[in-house]
Amino acid sequence: MKTRSIAAGALALAAVGTGLASASSASSASSATSAGPRISFAMQRSPGIVTAGCLPHAQAKVTVRHDGQVERMRIQAWGLPKNTDFDTFVIQVPNAPFGVSWYQGDLESNRYGKAEVEYVGRFSQETFAIAPGVAPAPSVHAAPTPDATSNPAFGPVHTFHVGIWFNSPADALKAGCPGGTTPFNGEHNAGVQVLNTGSFADTAGPLGRFHP
User: Fold this and answer.
1) In b/e form, how buried is each residue of 46-68, taking b as 16+ CB within 10 angstroms?
2) Residue 66 to residues 23, 129, 212: CA-CA distances in angstroms?
3) Are 169 and 179 in contact (CB under 8 A)?
4) Cα–Cα distance between 20 and 170 in angstroms, integer?
5) Which architecture, in CATH terms, is 14-209?
6) Which residues pair with 72 in a beta bridge?
7) pTM (2 d.p.)
8) Alpha-helix runs per DSSP H in 5-164
């Protein structure tokens, strides 16, 4: 996990902070301000978290706005375990098997279980991944999930959903949640998903409603 850094591009990392949040509607809403157009939408608990009965008050509000040639995506979350690290991904579908998934950056809760972060990148109807052909890839991590040493070829795939994972299975267990290991952090040893945009259909994620 690499905290408190910023990068623009397909994989935007985070400028991590803490703050208060307010509840919002699960539907995407567009508005115009002096900073330009924006959308806001809610994140809800993932099915595994609901089934386990943990983090009953966890939720988040996401706001995306234009900033010149990029977008800024702000996440405000609350109801989380205090002083805990999480990882944010932009994903193809909100629940397993998740599809194409891009690591955006980190999210850290404060002593009140609240967290706020802003990512810089492409978070709109133009958010997509593409692999025109097979090519070699570096192998950095061997365990618990080894890196692929090449990619499959695929055409443009839009990724309009957002998911947040525990950075550590131990933190998930401490919070009373399932302790499975997933590849959703920088070292590929994250915990389970906590929040996602599952209130939107698989092929109609909220980022797709934001026009560039």
Assistant:
1) bebbeebebbeebbbbbbbbbee
2) 22, 20, 8
3) yes
4) 26
5) Sandwich (2.60)
6) 65, 120
7) 0.84
8) 47-52
Six-digit token string for 113: 């279980």
**Which structure tokens are listed for 60?**
């988040």
Q: Which two tokens stand for residue 104?
A: 């955006």
Instruction: Report residue 16: phi and psi, to 5°.
Output: -85, 135
Class of residue 127 by CB neighbours under 10 A (exposed 0-12, middle 13-18, buried 19+): buried
Residue found by looking up tokens 């290991």 in the block: 181
How many residues comprise the chain? Answer: 212
Q: Which amino acid is located at 143 in the chain?
A: A
Tens digit of pLDDT at every position of the chain (212 positions):
544 333 333 333 333 333 333 333 333 343 323 345 899 999 999 999 999 999 999 999 999 999 999 999 999 999 999 999 999 999 999 999 999 999 999 999 999 999 999 999 999 999 999 999 999 999 999 999 999 999 999 999 999 999 999 999 999 999 999 999 999 999 999 999 999 999 999 999 999 999 98
Domain-by-domain residue ranges, the chain?
14-209
| Residue partners of 97: CB distance under 8 A and separation at least 6 | none
